[in-house]
Amino acid sequence: MNRTARLYALVEELRAAAPRPVTVSALAGRFEVSARTVQRDLQALMESGVPVRTTPGRGGGWSIDPRMTLPPIHLTADEAAALTAALAAADARAPYAGAARTAAQKIAAAMTGPASTAARHLAERIVTLPSSADTAVRTAVERALITRTVLRLSYADAAGRHSERVVEPAGLLTADGRWYLIAWCRTRQAGRGFRLDRITSAATTTEQAEPHDLSALLRGSAGADAVRSMTLAALGRLP
Asked: Is the separation of the CB atoms in 138 and 93 below 8 Å?
């Protein structure tokens, strides 16, 4: 069993035993590897965001919180492959790319049967080149959108002119492989789109932003015909 398959299997083993802890020695015996290897694997799962934890002392061991994990997901092999490809291909410069990667790991760990095997084999054949994306800018934009707070940024337009802006984020627009922050610009007193790769610096604040309708801000711009993801739109209709 290779390491990727073992990581998925470890999650399933802990989920089956939850909430009882399982010792490293028991897991090592189960997967026929050294205790040191199991310890490294469990640490890797923890660092990737899987809710595994260790309890020291007599009767302790490693466990997983069933309330913080997905139940087994029954997908077809094609659905699993599509999901794996979409998440694995998330550009490092795209918003929430880091969260997409950890989500892919968690979803894969929750899948069972042929779909799990198909997803794992496909993931092993998808590679990405490192990106020089400014993670500080991306993180600030992500946080401002989630917390609905005002964002201060430095921006360079298409002509290379630099300006300082104070904006109230409304949403994100993607087009032709580029991402844009759509926001109400207090500096210009109008809706504006800021290409993420042209934001040279960004800083979050604790000031709450006024709510703005994304469609209204896009009206009259090149993004006026943008459509929401039908998959994500469906989530809003769930009870």
From this structure: yes
